[in-house]
From TrEMBL:
Keywords: Lyase, Magnesium, Menaquinone biosynthesis, Metal-binding. It is an enzyme of class 4 (lyase). This is o-succinylbenzoate synthase. Converts 2-succinyl-6-hydroxy-2,4-cyclohexadiene-1-carboxylate (SHCHC) to 2-succinylbenzoate (OSB). Mg(2+) binds at residues 189, 214, 239. Pathway: Quinol/quinone metabolism; menaquinone biosynthesis; Quinol/quinone metabolism; 1,4-dihydroxy-2-naphthoate biosynthesis; 1,4-dihydroxy-2-naphthoate from chorismate: step 4/7. InterPro entries: Enolase-like_C_sf, Enolase-like_N, Enolase_C-like, Mandelate_racemase_C, Mandelate_racemase_N_dom, MenC, OSBS/NAAAR. The keyword Lyase applies. Its EC number is 4.2.1.113. Pfam families: MR_MLE_C, MR_MLE_N. The active site is at residues 164, 263.
Length: 369
């Protein structure tokens, strides 16, 4: 692939519903889009999932922009990349900054698949024709509002409901949800809101047949999670604390969790996400694809990675309409009875709508190769 231009765009999109977790509320989604254009004028697209604030991990939109502009793009500039799998190695001497790396690598993956004339899912090695998806519901102002939101999403056919918890909004609210929805596939995500001091309290969640408790402890902990997993029946799912396939191997070895939420951006790109998937599959550990409130472009990448066989549980890739009045892709991501069909078109399989992208672009910068 011979790129002749990369365009970075800072977009701002208004979420239909504010999204509240244990670390704050998001009303607008600001993110970086990467467009890699080759000599034939074909574009590969990807998005950085870094938030404007360092609340999920230490990266931010601005640190990503800086890393892409000053380090990552210069490394690939003028290089003939045969396969996007090469990019992880080219960038590995740069420490961390996984979301920035992933945004660049993802654009090359989309372009590669388009040049090969195959769907991104096929380029990744995915065989599924459709994927099961769930929905992640933020912390609401009242139990009634949460129950109403759950009811409307169950009615839409989502295969799994994920609710956020934090101290003061956990055991009682889960009990209330279970009272109204005794049969639904239900999980909770704590986003690191607890510590080992809360083990006795968290044990109460075992009473509710939850699919999993996601990331109860610190974003950089494996040891305390393994201690908790020894004391609770409910499977612990790891998100923020798994930064690579190596972290997954170590977490599995010491029993930190029984399920892993894979986020392409968190682990540094599709190539590493495939490796992580393979490590988990070899150990019989289920994985599913998490979300970072992506636009349709990031959503498309999540759909592709979810087509791998080891993605055995419904992910957080809900429909575009769950987040946006209007998405920046056509067609939008739609969910029918909790299922998304894997696109058959080359690349990400959804067409970025440049007019809508430009309308939402706060700032952009071009890098000529
Ligand atoms: O709908 C989605 O994209 C998933 C949203 C979601 O659950 C999360 C988004 C970003 C960070 C977290 O709060 C949380 C997660 O940890 O999975
Ligand atoms: Mg999570």
């Amino acid at each position: 692939m011979r790129i002749n231009r990369i365009i970075l765009r800072h977009l701002k999109m208004k979420l239909i519903h504010p999204f509240t977790t244990s670390f704050g509320t998001m009303r607008d989604k600001e993110f970086i889009l990467v467009e890699a254009i080759d000599h034939d004028g074909v574009s590969g697209w990807a998005e950085s999932v870094a938030f404007p604030e360092p609340s999920y991990n230490e990266e931010t939109l601005r640190t990503n922009w800086h890393m892409l502009e000053s380090f990552l793009i210069p490394i690939v500039q003028g290089r003939e990349i045969e396969h996007p799998g090469e990019i992880t190695g080219l960038l590995q001497h740069i420490r961390g900054n996984h979301m920035a790396k992933s945004a660049l690598e993802g654009a090359y993956w989309d372009l590669y698949a388009k040049k090969q004339g195959i769907p991104l899912a096929a380029a990744i090695g995915g065989k599924k024709q459709e994927i099961e998806v769930g929905v992640s519901i933020g912390i609401k102002n009242s139990p009634a509002e949460l129950l109403e939101t759950i009811a409307s999403n169950v009615a839409k056919g989502y295969k799994r409901i994920k609710i956020k918890i934090k101290p003061g909004w956990d055991v009682d609210i889960v009990a209330e949800v279970r009272k109204h929805f005794p049969q639904i596939a239900l999980m909770v995500d704590a986003n690191s809101a607890y510590t080992l001091a809360d083990v006795e309290h968290l044990k109460q969640l075992d009473a509710f047949s939850l699919m999993m408790i996601e990331q109860p402890f610190a974003y950089n902990d494996l040891i305390d999670h393994s201690e908790l997993q020894k004391q609770v029946q409910t499977p612990i799912c790891l998100d923020e604390c798994i930064h690579s396939s190596e972290d997954a191997r170590k977490a599995i070895q010491i029993g930190s969790g029984k399920i892993i939420n894979v986020k392409i951006g968190r682990v540094g790109g599709i190539q590493e996400a495939i490796k992580l998937h393979n490590v988990c599959q070899e150990s019989g550990v289920d994985v599913w694809c998490g979300g970072m409130l992506e636009s349709g472009i990031g959503r498309a990448h999540n759909i592709a990675i979810s087509s791998l066989a080891g993605f055995t549980l419904p992910g957080d890739t809900a429909a575009s309409a769950n987040y946006w009045e209007e998405d920046i892709i056509e067609p939008e991501v739609v969910v029918h009875d909790g299922l998304i069909r894997i696109p058959e078109k080359p690349g990400i399989g959804y067409a970025p709508v440049v007019k809508r992208i430009q309308e939402r672009t706060e700032y952009e910068q071009s890098f000529l190769f």
